[in-house]
Amino acid sequence: MYLQDPNYIRAIKKSTNLAILDIEGKLPIDPLELIHKHGWQVFTYSEVALESGQSIQQVCKYFHSNESVTFCNYANPDYPLYKIFYNDTLSIKEINMALAHEIGHITLGHFCDPAVTRLNFSLNTIVNPEIAPHLETEANIYAINLLCPAPLFDVYKLGEDDIIAAFNISSETAKYCLKFNRLLAKLIKLEDRREITKKFGFAIREKVFKPKTKRP
Question: Angle 31-38/8-22 helices, nearest 10 degrees?
């Protein structure tokens, strides 16, 4: 087991950079779209269940995760092969968080040590002590800042209902965001905070503040 403290600054910096460089200014952010854009392989638990003749519950047990897991193949160290598996029977809000978490593991370089070949996410625990606690915490922080960019929280004074509506995440994840994101925003460089606010400003106003038209 790894006995290190999570590197929050690194997780925030990496997820902010991805949001600025690779994501259009629309909300909610689609992690599956990002995965395809980067050429990482992705499979559903249903596909695995069908091919193996097992139930979804058995697939979850095999992967040691009810939500998602990523495997890394280091046959070619210069071009590691990532395979992401996720439980497609969950709600889209749960899937978004799980996939963003797996993207975090990859872009944070958690597989750089060849001894680490599998990392997963479970909604039942904030960290996964079975693997490496600090890596799981870093991936969670990365995921919430990717799905719900921290600079938007201070600028638009978002509440739990606003977060759920704008970012299409679960109430549990929204509470996690409220707990951390205003603090995390202070770890982001001023110019990056401005860039994030500029990029997603229109989308957040459309999702949260635009008056809803009532049907006659």
Answer: 80
pLDDT digits (tens, 9 = 90+) for 20-69: 988 888 999 999 999 999 999 999 999 999 999 999 999 999 998 999 99
- Give every CB contact of residue 15 below 8 A, 6+ residues apart in sequence: 104, 107, 141, 142, 143, 145, 146
Which contiguous run of DSSP H or E holds residue 119?
A: strand 118-121
- Return the structure tokens found at 198: 């500029």
CA distances from 18 to 2, 77, 113 (A): 26, 23, 22
Asked if 68 contacts 98 with a C-beta cutoff of 8 angstroms, the reply is yes
Handedness of CA 153, 107, 91, 205 (dihedral sign): positive
E strand or H helix at 80, and its extent? none
In whole angstroms, give the CA distance from residue 159 to residue 83. 35
Contact of 196 with 19, CB cutoff 8 Å:
yes
The size of the chain, in residues, is 216
- The residues pairing with 83 across neighbouring beta strands, listed in sequence order, are 41, 71
How confident is the model over 95-116, as pLDDT tens digits?
Answer: 999 999 999 999 998 877 655 6
Q: Which helix (H) or strand (E) holds 192?
A: helix 190-204
Give the pair of three-digit tokens for residue 213. Answer: 């038209």
- In the numeric block, the tokens 């070619």 are attached to 76
CA 108, CA 143: separation in Å to the nearest integer? 11
| Structure-token pair, residue 61 | 């047990």
